[in-house]
Every structure is written in C-alpha cells, then in structure tokens.
C-alpha cells in the first residue's frame, strides 16, 4: 500500500455485506478500514437486557414495536424503534435496522433464500418492474459461496418454486448443513393443507444444525429475534471478527456524513463524526458503501459539492429512489386442536404456490409463512384486561398458546421512483446529521395481490378447520429494505453497473440489497451477500 492512502479499501458499514468484503480483502493481505456508525455489542449484554425487559420485543409482534429494543440507543445513532425515521408517504415504512458492529443480522430471523431465474427477468416475462442486468446463472456460484460463508441449513432437492416438483432453483453445490428437525405443529399443518394442493417448503436459514465454525447447534430457544442467546444463528459480527483477525481495522462509533470525489471522478476520502461531534477523514484507493439501503443513499445525497450538486453517484437522479419492501398482510387463527407452536426456530414452514407463474402479470408473487411463535405475554395481558382470573386464566393461556397461529404473507413490490428516501431538511440527530425521510406507497398491483391473498388465506384456514380471529391487511412492514441504489446497464436510470460499481465513480462500489432492481417475494439477505462476494472478487483484481 502506498503511504499516500490510509488504506487500500475503506468499507462503510460493518454488517454482513461489509463484513464479507472486508474479510475477503483482509485475508488477501490488503489493508482495510471498516467504519461503523454504532458501537460494539456483547451477546451476553444483549441477552441480559432482553431477559430483564418487562416487554419481550419481537418483530413478529408489531404491536410491541417501540416498546424498546435490547440494543443500544445512544444519541449519535438514534434507534429505528423510535421516531428516527420520518414518514411522509401514504403508507408507513417503519423498518427496524440496527446500527451496531455486525449490523441488522443480529436481530434478523435468518431466512436465507436464493432468488429463482425468473425473478431476474420480471419485466421481460411479465411486464412488471425491472429486469436485472445479470441472470441467475451468473450469480449462482456466489450463492454457493454465500451459503458456505453464512452457514446455511436447508433441504437439498426440494422445489423452492412452490410447485411440489423437481429441485428448484438449480444448484451446483448442496447446502452446507442439513435442516433442523421440524416441530410437530409444522408437520400437522402440512398434513392438513396437502389435500388443498399446498406444497410445504422448509425455509433455508442461518442457524447451525451441526457445529459450524465457532457456532453451536441451534438449541431452539425461539427468540432468534431479537438475539440468538448462544450464537448458533449467523450474524455479521462473525465476519467482522474474521476481518480483524486478518488485519482489518474497525472504527466503531464513526458516523460517515460526507463522501468526497476528486476532479477525475474517483472517490478520495470519507468524512465521519465521533459521538462528541468531532470530524475526521480517511483516504483509500477504493471504497465500498455497505450501510444498508436507507443510511447508504442518505449519505450519498448528503455528499453534495459544486461538481456533484445532487450528491455522489447521483447523475441519474436515482439515488434514494425505487425503495422496495415485502409489504404484507397476516391472519390470526385459532386451531381446533393443540398444535403447540413455539418449539425451535421462529420460522421454518413456508408455502410458495404463488412464487412464480403467468399470474405475475396481474398480481405480485408472494410467500406465505407460518410463524413459529407464541405470544404468551400478550395472550395473558389480553385475558387479564377482560377480567379472566384464577384457574380459568391458566386454562385459557394454555389453550390459546397451544392453538393460536399467525400466518403472514410477504408480497413482491415493484421499483417505483416516487418511493424514496432523502435526508430530512428539518430534523437532525444529536451530532447534526439529517435523519432519513421516507416516502412510501403501494400501487394497484399490490392491492390486487392483497385481495387475492386474503381469499387464499381464508381457504387455508378452512382446510385446517381453524377460526379466523383477525385478517390484518394494513400494509405490514417486513424489515426487508431493497432498492434506492439500483443496478443497471444504463447510467441514466441506475446507480451502479452489473458489477455494483457506481456509474459515476470508478473506485466506488455499493454492496447490499439496495442495488437489487427487483425484490422477488423472498428475504433478500443471501442475494445481497452473493453480490457482495462478487464485489470482493472484482476488488481483488483491482487492488
């Protein structure tokens, strides 16, 4: 490394995407600096905070959002569980991401799905959304690498297209780990739904089914969110540990607020603030923005100058636009027999009958998932509020805990330019950095999917002879942030090229789910990880 630079590579963000890239480059002997806005956290501290909390926060229970999070909430990185995200659109986008070393994977459910080949050709096949500039075959080897790096458990040979046929999508390597055992409730539900043509799919996920690296076998604690108490579930801090052992330097509590470019278009330095408000800057040969799909575009839009009045990487005016999510609905049902959910991981049983097909011209693809959770505290609170006491209270808690199920639907959404994130002009955080302002909406395509899926859910409930307690169609957020820095071949309508290199700056890459031109209906983490490993390969050729 030349002494005129602080590092060969600066990675902004220490989540799974940044950690994968930093660890690959550091292990290859490159000098790497990682900037993270938030602090380091210790698993033991998070578990203890969660254990002692009067309200046990769960992403599966939207009513408890805002009741608190076991993760830090210092003034310089306000928690997304509060009012940090400013909502301006007709549909709220109350996503919850973490600004700590290791990122949001600390509290994710760990679903790690591949996209299928047709997901990359949404516009060409169905006249909806956008096509990708690359196809499944080009990304498939990196899916294999990502599954190995993250330690994915899955069922080899199952049809993840949802049609109950041959293995799909195509794979060149088996899953790194076999699946965990299926809880009784999943087997019973699958038995009930099979006559209706519903084909059960077991979700690939990042929980260890055998000792994997430093991770023990999943013990079925059933609080994957907000934290796996034993570290059986993957999180991004694991790759940060690898990167640091290989020589990378991590700066925590370093909030990037400006990226600077030279006259030749190359990025020259990144400016960051510490919690005391002091400003610092670092230089490098190459830069990777891996700050997720809200903080990332916010930083780009804040980085204005005389040459770049609209911000860095934004000659197309697409930075921050095309925000997508898996905006969904859900159904609460009461079974007529005990099925005992809550054993093992929080999610495993999925139905994908409407993942792909000609119907995507008219309604979005969607995933239907049975949540393996038991909200015992909420059940007890509701009963107490109704005056139920004594033996009857005990009887009802036992009954409802054994029979209550939540069935959720995640819809694919289209990239729409009006859905966007911008830095607020009126609100800042404690160190003077604008907070994110979000405009989000759904279109008639989503509405048509909602109407169709409601009938589908009702049919499922009938097959299970279950009572529908509630059908919630109020635009539930699924915490899957996509879009805002789209990939494309045309610099006029995209932010990065097929290699995730920004069109405007040759030494600047963007990693993560923000570059995805289409969302599919599946959790995007594995796709973001595969793209990040692809970036690492490109960087290794150039540095």
Describe it.
The structure is a single chain. The strands form three sheets. Strands 1, 2, 5, 6, 7, 8 and 16 form a seven-stranded mixed sheet that branches. Strands 4-10-11-12-9-15 form a six-stranded antiparallel sheet. Strands 3-14-13 form a three-stranded mixed sheet, covered by helices on one side. Helices cover 25% and strands 18% of the residues. With 543 residues, the chain is α/β, with parallel strands linked by helices. It is globular, with a radius of gyration of 23 Å. The relative contact order is 0.19. The longest helix has 20 residues, at 444-463.
At a glance:
The chain is 25% helix and 18% strand.
Summary tags:
single chain, 543 residues, alpha/beta, seven-stranded mixed sheet, six-stranded antiparallel sheet, globular
**Residue-averaged pLDDT:** 95
Percent of residues in helices: 10-25%
Order of helices and strands: EHEHEHHHEHEEEEHEEEHHEEEHEEH
Strand content: 15-25%
Number of strands: 16
Judged by helices, strands and strand pairing, the structural class is alpha/beta
Q: Largest beta sheet, briefly? A: 7 strands, mixed
Radius of gyration: 23 Å
The helix tally amounts to: 11
Overall body shape:
globular
Separation of the first and last Cα atoms: 9 Å
Low-confidence stretches: 59-66
Give the secondary structure arrangement, pairings included.
Elements: E1 7-12, H1 16-27, E2 32-35, H2 43-52, E3 86-87, H3 122-126, H4 136-150, H5 184-193, E4 200-202, H6 237-245, E5 249-251, E6 255-261, E7 267-273, E8 279-289, H7 292-302, E9 328-334, E10 347-351, E11 366-371, H8 376-385, H9 390-403, E12 404-411, E13 420-428, E14 434-439, H10 444-463, E15 467-476, E16 508-510, H11 525-542
Parallel strand pairs: 1-2, 1-8, 2-5, 3-14, 8-16
Antiparallel strand pairs: 4-10, 6-7, 7-8, 9-12, 9-15, 10-11, 11-12, 13-14
Helix pairs in contact: 1-6, 1-11, 4-11, 8-9
């Amino acid at each position: 490394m030349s002494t005129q630079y602080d590092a060969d590579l600066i990675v902004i963000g220490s989540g799974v995407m940044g950690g994968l890239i930093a660890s690959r480059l550091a292990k290859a002997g490159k000098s790497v600096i990682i900037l993270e806005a938030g602090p380091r956290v210790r698993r033991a501290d998070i578990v203890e905070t969660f254990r002692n909390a009067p309200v046990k926060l769960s992403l599966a229970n939207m009513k408890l959002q805002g009741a608190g999070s076991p993760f830090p909430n210092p003034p310089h990185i306000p928690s997304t569980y509060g009012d940090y995200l400013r909502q301006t659109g007709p549909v709220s986008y109350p996503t919850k991401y973490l600004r700590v070393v290791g990122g949001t994977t600390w509290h994710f459910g760990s679903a790690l799905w591949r996209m299928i080949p047709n997901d990359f050709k949404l516009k060409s096949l169905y006249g909806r959304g956008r096509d990708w500039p690359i196809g499944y075959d080009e990304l498939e080897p990196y899916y294999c690498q990502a599954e190995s790096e993250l330690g994915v458990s899955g069922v080899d040979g199952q049809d993840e297209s949802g049609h109950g046929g041959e293995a799909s999508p195509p794979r060149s390597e088996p899953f790194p780990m076999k699946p965990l055992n299926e809880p009784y409730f999943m087997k019973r539900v699958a038995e009930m739904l099979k006559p209706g043509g519903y084909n059960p799919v077991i979700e690939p996920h990042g929980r260890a089914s055998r000792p994997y690296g430093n991770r023990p076998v999943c013990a079925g604690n059933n609080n994957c969110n907000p934290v796996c108490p034993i570290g059986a579930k993957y999180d991004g801090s694991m790759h940060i540990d690898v990167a640091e052992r290989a020589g990378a330097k991590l700066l925590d509590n370093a909030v990037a607020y400006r990226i600077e470019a030279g006259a030749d278009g190359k990025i020259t330095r990144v400016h960051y603030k510490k919690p005391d408000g002091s400003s610092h800057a670092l230089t490098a040969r190459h830069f990777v923005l891996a700050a997720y799909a809200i903080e990332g575009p916010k930083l780009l839009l804040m980085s204005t100058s005389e040459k770049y009045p609209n911000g860095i990487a934004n000659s197309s005016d697409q930075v921050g636009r095309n925000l997508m999510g898996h905006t969904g609905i859900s159904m609460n049902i009461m079974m007529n027999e005990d099925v005992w959910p809550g054993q093992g991981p929080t999610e495993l049983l999925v139905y994908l009958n409407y993942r792909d097909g000609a119907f995507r011209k008219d309604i979005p693809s969607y995933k239907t998932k049975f949540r393996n959770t038991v909200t015992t505290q909420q059940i007890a609170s509701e009963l107490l509020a109704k005056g139920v006491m004594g033996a009857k209270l005990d009887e009802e808690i036992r009954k409802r805990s054994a029979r209550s199920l939540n069935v959720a639907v995640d819809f694919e959404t289209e990239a729409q330019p009006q859905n966007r994130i911008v830095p607020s002009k009126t609100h800042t955080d404690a160190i003077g950095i604008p907070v994110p302002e979000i405009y989000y909406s759904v279109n008639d395509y989503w509405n048509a999917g909602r109407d169709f899926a409601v009938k589908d859910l009702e049919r499922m409930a009938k097959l299970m002879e279950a009572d529908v307690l509630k059908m919630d169609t109020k635009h539930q957020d699924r915490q899957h942030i996509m879009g805002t820095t789209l990939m494309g071949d045309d610099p006029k309508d995209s932010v990065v090229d097929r290699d995730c290199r920004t069109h405007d700056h040759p030494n600047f890459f963007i990693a993560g789910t923000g570059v995805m031109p289409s969302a599919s209906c599946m959790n995007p983490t594995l796709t973001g990880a595969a793209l990040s490993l692809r970036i690492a390969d490109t960087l290794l050729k150039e540095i």
